[in-house]
Model the fold of this input.
Amino acid sequence: MADLFSGLSLGFGVALTPINLMLCLIGALVGTLVGVLPGIGTIATVAMLLPITFGLPPIGALIMLAGIYYGAQYGGSTTSILVNIPGEATSVVTTLDGFQMAKQGRAGPALAIAAIGSFFAGCIATVLIAVLGAPLTKLALAFGPAEYFSLMVLGLIFAVVLAKGSVLKAVAMIVFGLLLSMVGSDIETGVSRMAFNLPELADGLGFATVAMGVFGFAEIIRNLDAGAQMDRELVQQKITGLMPTRKDLMVSAPAIMRGTVLGSILGILPGGGAVIASFAAYTLEKKISKNPSRFGRGAIEGVAAPESANNAAAQTSFIPLLTLGIPPNAVMALMVGAMTIHGIVPGPQVMQKQPELVWGMIASMWIGNLMLIIINLPLVGIWVRLLRVPYRLMFPSIMVFCAIGIYSINNAPVDVILAGAFGLLGYWLIKHDFEPAPLLLGMVLGPLMEENLRRALLISRGDWTVFLTRPLSAVLMALAASLLVLAVLPSLRKKRDEVFAETED
Amino acid sequence: MNLYSRMLAGGGLAALIGFGAFAASAQTQTYPTRTITMIVPFAAGGPTDVIARIVTGHMAQTLGQTIIIENVVGAGGTTATTRAARAANDGYTLITGHMGTHAASVPLYPNLAYDPEKDFEPVMLLAGTPILILARKDFPPKDLKEFIAYVKANVGKVNAAHAGVGSVSHVSCQLLNSILDIKPTAVPFNGTGPAMNALVSGQVDYMCDQIVNAVPQINGGTIKAYAVATPARNPSLPDVPTTAEAGLPEFQAQAWNAIFAPKETPAPVIAKLNAAAAKALDDEGVRKRLLDLGSVVPPAPQRTPETLATLVKSEIAKWTPVLKPATN
Done:
């Protein structure tokens, strides 16, 4: 405990210097902006800004880059809620209820609760890093390929629960997403799959390309439909309060709590932790809700829980980096690059050798979260006012931002054309009541699932029982199976209907 | 990515003053008169990017022009290399290639859109990054001799990790396996980070990887190193023997980075770039930063375009037989 307090005081000493405070603020602001602008993702931004940080002191550089990373989690919900475009994989589920709330004139409370949930989750997760960082690292190491595959299976079953319409159509979308994720090079042999000899497809389809297409562009086409125009005007007219009501807060508080716990745990896992966290949190809320049919129709818990979960996960995903020196995702790998350039190569001894770096970052995260809530709450009013901008002005700007964002990821014009094609596909899907969220989740989980299945089977020499003989994996499989049983067993039919099918509309 | 590049590590003001002075002197010379673009075929922050930034930062001062780093990623660096091969050969577009883009890609990508030897003018070798033979910390063999005996005896049981097809860890492990004449199960990961995670947690038994990623883990006791595949020991790991010392002299491998220009770039331009790069490697600060990364800085005789051309030729000859069977 004494260590903790001396560490924290060292950390705040580092983080509270004027230069580091300013860098933290810049990081938080840039992160918010990146999150808000559709298509421009955190990986692209951190890569773009990395060279600028080479002139800064290493701790300041890392504080700023970290600020961009978690700041984007705050901003990411904004476009999900306002225009139904998820900026990041982690905010896909936020579109489900967030955009519905906006349609009901409740964009303000949705944005505010997302910020409040993120703040709460960020604070708790930062404390977790400080107190339990080292022991939690063991969890990250205990997760081998078999455990990952089982987690992904569980994740796909969650994805079915997300559907508010036909279960069959949701399954079809997941499978389609899995297929799309297989475009590109085979991980084991390097052979090109479904790329039609196009070099642009050699590395697969980008998440942003598909997301901007099936959500962003498709939504715009739908809005330009004659019938939907009315709908749009409706949104503009009936904007009610900006802040959540007392009732909203009462309903959201436990959801935020649960989202934080789930997000903190799943965030530690390298790879897709934050994505799974966001929709595991949503699924949990839908499952334990007394009235699951509210979900997908503007339930505030459906915004509060996943937004808390993704921010908690964004914070705890620093644990493997800070305790082991192993970057758990692409953004962290870039941060390792930043450290390398400054001559710090992070490793298992980074906590002993560079305590001011580790504790400075932890302290700055708490300060950064505080800054973010102060930045974001007043912004709610501005964002909501944006909804009043006439749609004929709004949609070309969204198109331009999306196109720039998509282009900037790989400097590839083909990506923009692909997003256009996915826009048309997405429009067709909307018209036939297929939901795009399960498709995107299938696409995000697909590669993780395939790669880890193949790794697990390579290591076990083709023995499938490995998924049941490893305890953690077995628990996850059992959870997945029980969710499935719940859906299939006729004796539980009534329960299943409550959870899955709300086909009356 | 890549738009902004050079903010000199030393400090903005000094760079600005230096920049002004050099800009004036540049007018008296023909090349370079404008900004140079250096294509880096990998993401910002990776080993190649770090080396390119350290060296070009100093070269820019010598040449009196800004050098912008453009990170173009995809298809194991071959997307960027294709772009560089097709760029104007006026000396304003260069590429920091590496072992993968200019040698291992030949057997790995049958439809490669460029020829590393014919489509480029070699400029200079910048740095070599030694390869280590690594294992999980509780892997039974104690030294390289025991390791060789163990993997040969248990080839059906051991698992070797690598960071993806075509990565340095993949091709160097293929070389090791072909020397030992074994075919262990190769478990692919997406990048060095996840592969290292698997080794640290003991899910896989061994891998070959570049020194820069491994030093902190070795010093932290989370993994162990059997040997370094270079003729001399590395100063950052003085206790790790060379493969020759440990009984496997045939296994020599290091990842290397070098500057190339598109073919038929004028010889005076190449000479000027070569001189600037050589001057960078002689700079104490640049040298120290490269050595800190575990890199080997080429001595003066290895800094000519001709030695780089020879290196490319010999590397293609070295990797082609090793990697050909892997893709078939």
Notes: The first strand of chain A starts at residue 184 and ends at 185. The radius of gyration of chain A is 22 Å. Chain A is about 75% helix and 0% strand.
